């Protein structure tokens, strides 16, 4: 429920004291904002830009000041700022996971707040999994979206990103998902659809996403953060099948997967593809018998934990079956594309 704070009629001294306490605590809460030029008017509220009010956790009451976007804003002492998600290059609070319910194979609500879904805009058809990098960008696999590239424009987006989704069979959740039109698809320039080398793409949102309990950004790894074959705690998430014979999941699933070293992964894949197969250095492998990404998980994130933050190590690219013995899944190694990601994001939003 939205509460509009109004100045009451002052009939008794006790009421006056309560109003003064409210205004005093509001002034303390906004002291840093006031130092940046926000003024207080004769009604006791603070005259500020509309979005400054909203992101401070306040409630606009009426227009004020000379600017057409300035409002009279009341901010309670215990307000929690909403906040726009940080840009990738200055992210400091990324990768904060929600609580784990310890259900084998099933995520908890709000547990993986960066997991996103890419959908066709008109039909709501599921295309692929994805992850939220910052307020304007979503990361997915290039093979998921390359067919849509000729049709996607700023004024006629054929794709959208759904953020904050958990159970796709219901809308009766405490926090509903939010949808954002995708205005631009950026494939890696060296993506090869035949071999799935450089299977990575960035999707630019038309409007900025905002941090919620069920919507947040994942961290980007550095080059040597998670070496192949390390004992890192890693998970892959998605709404794909749990195994080759099951239906697609309606509740977001999570699978704990071990990382492989690339020589072992290459040898395992050569038994499937032949001795001439070469695993690119821009790939990383993960999985075990019964623990693997599956059909419907493509484009989704493989994340690993470090110092209480979760970093996206891979993007689901391809596999052979699901969870077969000695056959890992193959992921695009995100750290190999750090420069490309930052260059793409930085060039669009200086």
UniProtKB/TrEMBL annotation:
Domain named Peptidase S1 is located at: 98-346
Provide the protein's localization: Secreted
Q: Which Pfam families match?
A: Trypsin
Q: Cite the entry's keywords alphabetically.
A: Disulfide bond, Hydrolase, Protease, Secreted, Signal
Q: Which CDD domains match?
A: Tryp_SPc
Q: Which Gene3D superfamilies match?
A: Trypsin-like serine proteases
GO MF:
serine-type endopeptidase activity
This protein's superkingdom?
A: Eukaryota
Question: Which biological processes are named by the entry's GO terms?
Answer: proteolysis
GO CC annotations, alphabetized: extracellular region
Would you indicate the residue range of the signal peptide? 1-35
Q: Family, per the entry?
A: Belongs to the peptidase S1 family. CLIP subfamily.
Q: What name has this protein been given in UniProt?
A: Serine protease 52-like
């Amino acid at each position: 429920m939205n509460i509009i704070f109004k100045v009451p009629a002052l009939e008794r001294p006790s009421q006056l004291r309560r109003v003064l306490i409210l205004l005093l605590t509001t002034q303390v809460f906004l002291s840093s904002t006031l130092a940046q030029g926000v003024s207080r008017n004769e009604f006791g509220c603070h005259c500020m830009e509309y979005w400054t009010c909203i992101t401070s956790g306040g409630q606009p009451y009426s227009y004020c000041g000379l600017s057409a976007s300035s409002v009279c804003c009341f901010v309670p002492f215990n307000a929690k700022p909403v906040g726009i998600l940080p840009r990738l290059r200055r992210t400091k609070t990324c990768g904060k996971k929600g609580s784990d319910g310890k259900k084998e194979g099933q995520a908890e609500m709000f547990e993986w707040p960066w997991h996103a879904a890419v959908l066709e805009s008109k039909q709501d058809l599921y295309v692929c999994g994805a992850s939220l990098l910052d307020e304007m960008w979503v990361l997915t696999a290039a093979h998921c979206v390359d067919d849509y590239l000729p049709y996607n424009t700023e004024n006629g987006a054929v794709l959208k990103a759904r953020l904050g989704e958990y159970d796709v069979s219901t809308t009766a959740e405490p926090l509903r998902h939010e949808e954002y039109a995708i205005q631009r698809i950026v494939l890696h320039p060296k993506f090869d659809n035949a071999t799935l080398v450089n299977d990575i793409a960035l999707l630019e949102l038309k409007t900025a996403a905002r941090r919620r309990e069920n919507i947040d950004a994942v961290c980007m790894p550095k080059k040597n953060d998670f070496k192949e074959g390390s004992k890192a705690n890693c998970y892959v998430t998605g709404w794909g099948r749990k195994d080759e014979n099951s239906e697609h999941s309606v509740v977001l699933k999570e699978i704990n997967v071990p990382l492989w070293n690339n020589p072992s992964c290459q040898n395992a894949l050569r038994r499937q593809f032949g001795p001439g197969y070469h695993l690119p250095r821009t790939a990383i492998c993960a999985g075990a018998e019964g623990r693997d990404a599956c059909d419907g998980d493509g484009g989704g994130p493989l994340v690993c934990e470090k110092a209480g933050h979760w970093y996206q190590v891979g993007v689901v690219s391809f596999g052979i079956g699901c969870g077969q013995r000695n056959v890992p899944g193959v992921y695009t190694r995100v750290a190999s594309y750090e420069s490309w990601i930052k260059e793409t994001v930085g060039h669009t939003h200086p």
